[in-house]
C-alpha cells in the first residue's frame, strides 16, 4: 500500500515536469496573435498604377515566404535552446526574488504599518478628537446669513 502511494506521488511529481505539449497549436493563449504574424501582404504592397511584372511579383512573394520560413527555422534551431535556457534562468531568478525577497518585505512592511497605524489612530483619538469637538461646540452657535443687495 505504501509502495503504491509512493509510486503515485512520484508519477505526479514527474508529470508536472514532463507536461505533454501541443505540437500543432503552439500559441494556445494567442500571445503573438497580432505581433509577429507577418505575411508578404503585410510588408510589401504595390498600389494601383504601380505594378511590377507578374513574374517578379510571384518570385518576390515566394522568395519572401521561403526565406522567412527557413531563416526562422535555422535561427530557432541554432539559438532556440540557448535562449530558452536563458529565459528559464531569468524567470527562475524573478520567481526566486519574488518568493524569497519581495513578498517577505511586503509582509514585513504591512505588519509594521499596521502597528504604526494603531499608534497613529490612538494619537488622533487622544489629542485631535477632543480639540475638534471643542471647536465644533464653539462654532456651533455661529449663524451665517447671506443677503443679496442690488
UniProtKB/TrEMBL annotation:
<dbReference type="GO" id="GO:0042391">
    <property type="term" value="P:regulation of membrane potential"/>
</dbReference>
<keyword id="KW-0472">Membrane</keyword>
<keyword id="KW-0832">Ubl conjugation</keyword>
<dbReference type="GO" id="GO:0060090">
    <property type="term" value="F:molecular adaptor activity"/>
</dbReference>
<keyword id="KW-1017">Isopeptide bond</keyword>
<dbReference type="InterPro" id="IPR018361">
    <property type="entry name" value="Caveolin_CS"/>
</dbReference>
<dbReference type="GO" id="GO:0051480">
    <property type="term" value="P:regulation of cytosolic calcium ion concentration"/>
</dbReference>
<dbReference type="GO" id="GO:0044325">
    <property type="term" value="F:transmembrane transporter binding"/>
</dbReference>
<dbReference type="GO" id="GO:0005925">
    <property type="term" value="C:focal adhesion"/>
</dbReference>
<keyword id="KW-0333">Golgi apparatus</keyword>
<keyword id="KW-0812">Transmembrane</keyword>
<dbReference type="InterPro" id="IPR001612">
    <property type="entry name" value="Caveolin"/>
</dbReference>
<dbReference type="GO" id="GO:0000139">
    <property type="term" value="C:Golgi membrane"/>
</dbReference>
<comment type="similarity">
    <text>Belongs to the caveolin family.</text>
</comment>
<dbReference type="Pfam" id="PF01146">
    <property type="entry name" value="Caveolin"/>
</dbReference>
<dbReference type="GO" id="GO:0005901">
    <property type="term" value="C:caveola"/>
</dbReference>
<dbReference type="GO" id="GO:0070836">
    <property type="term" value="P:caveola assembly"/>
</dbReference>
<protein>
    <recommendedName>
        <fullName>Caveolin</fullName>
    </recommendedName>
</protein>
<comment type="function">
    <text>May act as a scaffolding protein within caveolar membranes. Interacts directly with G-protein alpha subunits and can functionally regulate their activity. May also regulate voltage-gated potassium channels. Plays a role in the sarcolemma repair mechanism of both skeletal muscle and cardiomyocytes that permits rapid resealing of membranes disrupted by mechanical stress. Mediates the recruitment of CAVIN2 and CAVIN3 proteins to the caveolae.</text>
</comment>
<dbReference type="GO" id="GO:0042383">
    <property type="term" value="C:sarcolemma"/>
</dbReference>
<keyword id="KW-1133">Transmembrane helix</keyword>
<dbReference type="GO" id="GO:0030154">
    <property type="term" value="P:cell differentiation"/>
</dbReference>
<feature type="transmembrane region" description="Helical">
    <location>
        <begin position="74"/>
        <end position="101"/>
    </location>
</feature>
<keyword id="KW-1003">Cell membrane</keyword>
Amino acid at each position: 500500500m505504501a509502495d503504491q502511494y509512493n509510486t503515485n506521488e512520484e508519477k505526479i511529481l514527474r508529470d508536472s515536469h514532463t507536461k505533454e505539449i501541443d505540437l500543432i497549436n503552439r500559441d494556445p493563449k494567442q500571445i503573438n496573435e497580432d505581433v509577429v504574424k507577418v505575411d508578404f501582404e503585410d510588408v510589401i504592397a504595390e498600389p494601383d498604377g504601380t505594378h511590377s511584372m507578374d513574374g517578379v511579383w510571384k518570385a518576390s512573394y515566394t522568395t519572401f515566404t521561403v526565406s522567412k520560413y527557413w531563416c526562422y527555422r535555422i535561427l530557432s534551431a541554432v539559438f532556440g535552446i540557448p535562449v530558452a535556457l536563458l529565459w528559464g534562468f531569468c524567470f527562475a531568478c524573478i520567481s526566486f526574488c519574488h518568493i524569497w525577497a519581495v513578498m517577505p518585505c511586503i509582509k514585513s512592511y504591512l505588519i509594521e504599518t499596521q502597528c504604526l497605524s494603531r499608534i497613529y489612530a490612538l494619537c488622533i483619538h487622544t489629542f485631535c478628537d477632543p480639540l475638534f469637538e471643542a471647536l465644533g461646540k464653539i462654532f456651533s452657535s455661529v449663524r451665517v446669513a447671506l443677503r443679496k443687495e442690488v
